[in-house]
Input
Amino acid sequence: MGRRTPIEGEAAAGSSTAAEPSIFRNGNFRRLFAANSVSLYGSQVSYLAVPLTAVTALDASAAQVGLLGVLSTVSFLLIGLPAGVWVDRMRRRPIMFTADFGRALLLGSIPVAWLFDALTLTQLYLVVFVSGTLTVFSDISAQSFLPSIVPRERLLQANGYIGSVRESSGVAGPSLSGLLLQLMAAPAAVLVDALGFLLSGILISRIERVDESHTGAAEKKALYRGIWEGVRFVFSHPLLRPIAMAGAITNFSLQMVTIMLPLLFEHTLHFSAWKLGLYLAVGGVGSLIGAYTGPRLAERVGQGSVLWLAGLVTAPFACLVPLVDGGAVYWVSAVCWLVVTYRMGMNSVVLVSFRQRVTPNDLLGRMNATMRFALTGATALGAGASGLVGEFFGVRASLYVGAVGLAVAWLPYVFSPLRRMKTLP
Output
């Protein structure tokens, strides 16, 4: 399934000064950027195609679609914390391309099985679960690997470019996915994501070996002690702790909304796939605008203050998202969705760079693992809650519960030092 985990500066994203050479002159960053781009756009297809495969080809219920969402992210809860220790003990580049090749093989099995009329829900469950496990190692490694190929003073710029692709894939990806799903069956469309991971793995395998001074730093420590160091670092940090809490609430609530949208559009509203893709693309536009304008807004309002102020302003719009229906109401809900996702796009560029800057090299893997455990673990729980609420109280009830969560997700910032901070350290 798609692996969007939405939560996750002093200068505008992607900006550089005249005195600095382009960051794309760094060949290693250029290959990492390209690999990230193709895998992100490919994942947008699976984000729609896998649940639609379950709904259209296998007649899955709300609970079964919710279970797919759980299995795609539950590995962050099961092995996310020890994975951070293992990543800090190993070289990260081989982990990344091995994970990409593995996911290409797994996702490629879906259209093959469908072609031979052998596709089952059990296979979908296995594919999303094992792919999610590989994603754990890939994502933790990627965020921890970037400071090895980019100077820390240029991390905001590098993350700005990567974040821009992530948000632009959220704009173009769903629309292209919806169009693709109009032209071919959902199981066949999954092949696009498989090919994206294959190309990503090839590009990462061509990154030159770099000095990863972290390697072996955690080898002499017991596994539980290494895990505890990462957890303690995040949750004892006065700024990382509220960031983790707010991100977990956001991801839990966001998953409750998005996991039910294919069912709502397909079974309740009887909309075509392109209309679902268009709706999600509107949210992508909000994230993209937030990624580009958020840093400038943060300069004016304050990098800490803007986090809760934006949440306060967007809260009423979040509560209107579940009203989505036909006619003009569709567009009212879509505009509200754009406003909500603007806040998430704004947060992502500022906060990811901040996390990397304040963390020592030998703790990067464990810090990222702890964050991913909290953020993506919340996504898995949100998928499960969405399936249960949708099964027993209706699909739209799940949307309302998620919308309320999105409306209050900013509260941890209010009760932290971030509330009055003009500049993040």
User: Anything to note?
Assistant: The two ends are 36 Å apart (CA to CA). Residues 1-18 have pLDDT under 50 and may be disordered.
